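Long-time lurker, first post. I've been practising inverse folding by hand and with some scripts of my own, and I keep getting stuck on stretches where the structure tokens seem ambiguous. Below is the full token string for one chain I'm working on. Before anyone asks, I'm not after the true native sequence, just a reasonable design that respects the backbone. If someone could post their per-position residues I'd love to compare against what I wrote down in my notebook.
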């Protein structure tokens, strides 16, 4: 999950996007119970903070049919909120000034284009431990510069970071950042693989199950080396064979029909697409 910094994030908490909520049951199905909450730990830069993961207990008879709202809550005076306001000081000062000008209005205040700060959330071992990565313009630009020299297929396919980084001409700082990014990338991939019980989303089958194994890989729909988009809604879990075919032919992914559409007119539909279907509302 990736979320831009806003006033709520710096003071009270944040809402987990609907597209991510479907995946949470791969870790703990209890969070999908209406009104349920649990104490969690949020890790930032090696520091651990207390928070709550909460399925908001709104009146279902009044809001019938409304999807559950799952939030991370911590409150304005919490150590986590103080940490975020310190880390994102530039955003906080801008939003605070705008709030003073806005008065009592509750209209959402967006950050200007020259302040592009955001967080990425990753489940580490369970829903009770969430890693929060703080990102800034400089991070995005540096990573984009590094990725220009890496083919997407190599970025996705090679799990050996030492081998992967060996021939890159990037600086040590850029290499360290890219390795960190790949480690975070894998936490999302693990969640998706677990959610689909290690099945290929195209065929719906466990590839290699007859040998007591299941071999699937993660594919970024919009290439990560171009977009730096590591959100779960940009990843599908597919077999190595389908993965190679897609990279060789670069088909368009139709998000309304949940299928890859090839230049020669052929289509390759997904049989499993729950985490994408939810994001489409």
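-- Answer (accepted) --
I ran through it position by position. Result:
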């Amino acid at each position: 999950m990736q979320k831009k910094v806003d006033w709520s994030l710096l003071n009270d908490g944040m809402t987990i996007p609907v597209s991510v909520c479907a995946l949470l049951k791969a870790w703990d199905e209890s969070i999908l119970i209406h009104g349920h909450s649990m104490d969690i730990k949020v890790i930032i830069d090696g520091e651990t903070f207390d928070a709550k993961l909460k399925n908001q207990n709104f009146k279902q008879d009044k809001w019938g049919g409304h999807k559950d709202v799952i939030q991370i809550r911590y409150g304005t005076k919490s150590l986590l909120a103080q940490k975020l306001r310190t880390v994102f000081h530039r955003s906080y000062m801008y939003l605070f000034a705008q709030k003073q000008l806005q008065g009592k209005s509750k209209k959402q205040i967006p950050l200007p284009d020259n302040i592009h700060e955001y967080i990425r959330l990753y489940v580490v071992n369970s829903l009770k431990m969430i890693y929060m990565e703080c990102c800034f313009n400089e991070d995005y630009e540096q990573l984009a510069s590094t990725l220009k020299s890496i083919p997407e297929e190599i970025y996705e396919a090679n799990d050996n970071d030492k081998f992967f980084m060996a021939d890159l001409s990037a600086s040590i700082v850029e290499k360290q950042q890219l390795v960190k990014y790949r480690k975070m990338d894998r936490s999302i991939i693990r969640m998706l693989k677990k959610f689909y019980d290690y099945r290929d989303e195209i065929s719906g089958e466990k590839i290699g199950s007859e040998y007591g194994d299941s071999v699937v890989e993660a594919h970024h729909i919009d290439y990560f080396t171009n977009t730096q988009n590591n959100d779960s809604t940009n990843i599908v879990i597919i077999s190595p064979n389908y993965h190679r075919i897609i990279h060789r032919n670069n088909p368009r992914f139709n998000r309304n029909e949940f299928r890859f559409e090839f230049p020669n007119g052929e289509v390759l539909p997904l049989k499993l697409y729950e985490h994408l279907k939810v994001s489409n509302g």
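A couple of notes from the structure itself: Residues 160-166 have pLDDT under 50 and may be disordered. The longest helix spans residues 172-195. Happy to go over any region you disagree with.
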